[in-house]
Design brief:
The chain is α+β, with helices and mostly antiparallel strands. Among the domains are: 136 residues, no CATH class; 214 residues, Anaerobic Ribonucleotide-triphosphate Reductase Large Chain (Alpha-Beta Barrel); 141 residues, no CATH class. The chain is 39% helix and 15% strand. Strands 4, 5, 6, 7, 8, 11, 12, 15, 18 and 19 form a ten-stranded mixed beta sheet that branches. Helix 7 links the parallel strand 6 and strand 7. Keywords: Cobalamin, Cobalt, Disulfide bond, DNA synthesis, Nucleotide-binding, Oxidoreductase. One of its GO terms (molecular function) is ribonucleoside-diphosphate reductase activity, thioredoxin disulfide as acceptor. Catalyzes the reduction of ribonucleotides to deoxyribonucleotides. May function to provide a pool of deoxyribonucleotide precursors for DNA repair during oxygen limitation and/or for immediate growth after restoration of oxygen.
Amino acid sequence: MTETTSGPARGSRTKGSKTSKGLHMERIHTTPGVHPYDEVVWEHRDVVMTNWRDGSINFEQRGVEFPDFWSVNAVNIVTSKYFRGAVGSPQREKSLKQLIDRVVLTYRKAGEKHGYFSSPDEAEIFEHELTYALLHQVFSFNSPVWFNVGTAQPQQVSACFILSVDDSMESILDWYKEEGMIFKGGSGAGLNLSRIRSSKELLSSGGNASGPVSFMRGADASAGTIKSGGATRRAAKMVVLDVDHPDVEAFIETKVKEEEKIRALRDAGFDMDLGGDDITSVQYQNANNSVRVNDEFMKAYESGSAFGLRARMTGEVIEEVDARSLFRKLAEAAWACADPGIQYDDTINHWHTSPETGRITASNPCSEYMHLDNSSCNLASLNLLKFLRDDGKGNQSFDAERFAKVVELVITAMDISISFADFPTEKIGETTRAFRQLGIGYANLGALLMATGHAYDSDGGRGLAGAITSLMTGTSYKRSAELAAVVGAYDGYARNADAHKRVMKQHSDANAAARRIDDLDTPVWAAATEAWQDVVRLGEKNGFRNAQASVLAPTGTIGLMMDCDTTGVEPDLALVKFKKLVGGGSMQIVNNTVPTALRRLGYQPEQIEAIVAHIAEHGNVVDAPGLKTEHYEVFDCAMGERAISAMGHVRMMAAAQPFLSGAISKTVNLPESATVEEVEEVYYEGWKLGLKALAIYRDNCKVGQPLSAKKKDEAKAETAAQAPAQVEKVVEYRPVRKRLPKGRPGITTSFTVGGAEGYMTANSYPDDGLGEVFLKMSKQGSTLAGMMDAFSIAVSVGMQYGVPLETYVSKFTNMRFEPAGLTDDPDVRMAQSIVDYIFRRLALDFLPFETRSALGIHSADERQRHLDTGSYEAADDEVDVEGLAQSAPRHVEPRTPLTVAQPPAATPAPKEAHNSTELLEIQLGLNADAPLCFSCGTKMRRAGSCYLCEGCGSTSGCS
């Protein structure tokens, strides 16, 4: 069911006289007199979300209204996560229009109230453009905006918080309380514990202090309790300790020791899987830990010299340690259990815009927000693929002008939100209102790079990423300076003006020094250069409205809301994805960016079709027909046959970092075979390349890994198998051969592949499909003739024992060897080998349309029909689909070759898979280290330093 919303009231502009001050808003996507809702087709859908483990319904709301181009996953997640009101009540939101209006109209009202717009006309342009961008998935605010804005509850708009704790029991107890309140609201917090005296120092009473590691236990227990109290996501928190703290070694080893405890308990028979009954006895599992190193320590590491650990109260050195030995312990711990991460203190504070107010000591849980203690950050992310212009012939460009305009719009909205936002503590509210920290970022970088033919780990990929990041941050600060002229600079600016302008100059200099690579990034760099020139000029005149503008967040749930293929700055997870269908069920499809990338690289339509078909079957591009080996790297992913190297991830972070106010939420993935030395190198190179923070994850380093129900059943079965046998009788199944009758229908086909001629005879059961195949090539007695005879017998016997034809087709199509090339068959224009041709021909002759279409095999008529109508299927009165398998020998007039590539092949998703991560596990035979979603039970996937559930949108992070 579809409908459109219309009415002159929505499109009419409100008249009003201009004021002397206020922003001039520019139309980007919208038309005067037409509301964005009136330009899309709306439809009603039913949202029913189940827990796959037991089939129970987690969420149900029927008849929700969304644009027809929104995916099933995006609709499900927005409906279940962001619609407000009790389900089933009249107050429950049921349309995306209601959700967007609730947020956008609140922003417009606040903008008008606080003097952001020069007239009601400008406010209306702001409303329409913001509505359009959200409606068309061009960008999204972070989750708290969708949860809270426009509702009766406190309008918290920030997802990221930094707390502080001093060396007093009162402050430590305040930390527990404040952190708990933030967790209760579904957000995350981080803090630095380095002000707390170490266990090696004395109290005023004469006894030894407990030390920060001791107090971490209480906070960890609190976070675990709040999580287990019914939340659908674990508490997200970050704990930081300075490298010169006397308890730093104990801090480094906290999680390593707990992993040893998990091993011991597991071996003793306790259930220590993630989510298991006994895992709660393990401590320190609810936080990300990071050690904050400074340049003094890193230089001591380089030189192999001693480094002093300092008393918290006096600052004197109370112990000296070998810097290399301590750094090795840090790397060993990260190798063993992925914690702690590392933060580079001097680099962070070198880019600090407000140092006169205080140093940056900590970050949020995902490490992208770094600013003053007791502050928060409001996030929003842009969908980069929405700005890629592609004419379909391989000619592409990044729309830098439109991108900059959208950035200006989003930054304006984000700053307005601080004017009406609520905060979990008064201290956080005061600091945020005084410094107005924002965190604009982006998603879909990995998909954009692949679509433009750039390898993620390449100079071209890094050049484009750096240019876009520079343009985003430069435009953000330019708009911040323009806002300062209208509504004033942030309260803390006067005290920090020199430092803020110094940091702007650092960004501008980094932009000027960046290397221009190709025709895609060079125009973006030019636009960024112009933006930074305006930043320096306008900042000198007006100051700035915001102490911080940009970060690269994980974009977990909101990335799914925008239908992004990749999150944040991450590469693609895999080339084959899991896609939910409107009518129920699911399909596995090759990423839509793959054909786009192949066109950019100069491949012809038929080559693209063959490569996509290969990826659909194998999940990677290795040995794909016609694909040049030098282009393999373009399709490298985070996991799989050609996983991106650890330093590939680090170099990408380094390309973006100089152009960000904050940092980057990202985990550097290492294979299970990685060594401690490799971890050490990654952490060292992160410092050398100017990163602010870094975390690694080595596959299968965690002991308490999640087990699916299937694996648990297998484990139980194995245990049972080891017990004394009590089965009296074992019945063994053996297949039975079904021979063909003496008289059998058959089809004989002559063919030519790459100049080699041959004949194929395919005989069928009278009523039950193909039963045997005979191939004739070359002279009798030759090696080739003998091999073809043996191959024919093997295939025929397999069919008679029940092996389905589609199994042979899926295994032998796309097999490549000589002779190969053009054929004389109009239905199969190109073949990678004789075997490839034979099984494509057999599929066309004997498999029903639905089966072979799922394998990407179509006849010439079906291809032409797709070009004409957009569908491979004929109308019911045109063809007898059931009769295709029993068709007589063909005679089809030759046609001209196809001129466009076919869409990515789609096949039914395996029944065991419930999202892309599980699909990847099945395809590659690996175990993706990730927790199971607490809400729907599917395996989550990494999104930056956190985890994201593709099924229901739950995250383990703070955005």
